[in-house]
Amino acid sequence: ATQQLDRIVIDECHVVLSRKYTFRKQLQQLGKLMMAETQMVLLTATLPPSEEEELWRRMYYEKEQVKVFRARTARVNVGYRVIDVSGVGRQAEKEGFVLKLIKARFEGCGTGKVVVYCNTVGRVKRFAEELGCDAYHHHAIGKDSILNDFTEGKQRIIVATRALGMGVDIPDIRVIVHVDRPRTLLDYAQESGRAGRDGARSEAIAIVDNGEGGWRDNEQTEKDRRLVEKYMRGKDGSAVCRRIVLDEYLDARRVRVGCEEGEELCDVCGGIVGVEDKEATGEERVEEEVEAEK
Fold first, then answer.
1. Do 53 and 83 fall within a single domain?
2. Taking all residues of the chain, what is their mean pLDDT, rounded to a whole number?
3. Residue 54 sits in which domain range?
4. Which of 40, 44, 61, 190 could cysteine-pair with 14, CB 3.0–4.6 Å?
């Protein structure tokens, strides 16, 4: 043995692209590893082709130095769904509807698990309290214990921030619900990708309130806003197959026309209506959502 370093492996390398300043400042130090003059292996399941050059730049690589190996990222066993709650009523009624929907999905997934994502710690805590489950976020006390209980099935539902987005490989997560609009399509792909890792039929639901008007997130760039909006509402407000948007962004695949044979249908291709009836009660809407999935 030469006692020399053989290679350096960086997993989840897409986080180097994080736009969160405090995160980015530390991660960009990884580029200094080039000084080790050994092979570097970068791994990720979510690096859009359009972001490759930016990653190389932040890692201080020349494009010619990099050999890229890609495989398709499409999750064929996950059914994607967007539910518009703008017609449900006031904010409290909207949250009530979403909570009932989550409970219905939880009851319908057998021994499987459910992950609910929220953008703020306050909302995570509120939803966790309503659902009677653990809240997982960056500053949560006993984070490891919370995740352990969820992994082992002692708790089958959890509410979390994106702190639960990476490095979580739990096979039997059946439903992912994004209560808030994802900040980036990359975040959404990463987080919804927690579903169905055992290959069984699973579902990723994104809740959208198209009545929010001038909704903005200070951490969101205009490019990210447009991508998320395209996934949620399609082009010019006309919904398109959810997989078209994901594949075009994550794999630069532009030949898809809809969900294909062997894939779980998204709500658009399956003809499932995602805009709620303003006149129906919360219970009736949840029943309609459950029936739509049968």
1. no
2. 86
3. 7-65
4. 44
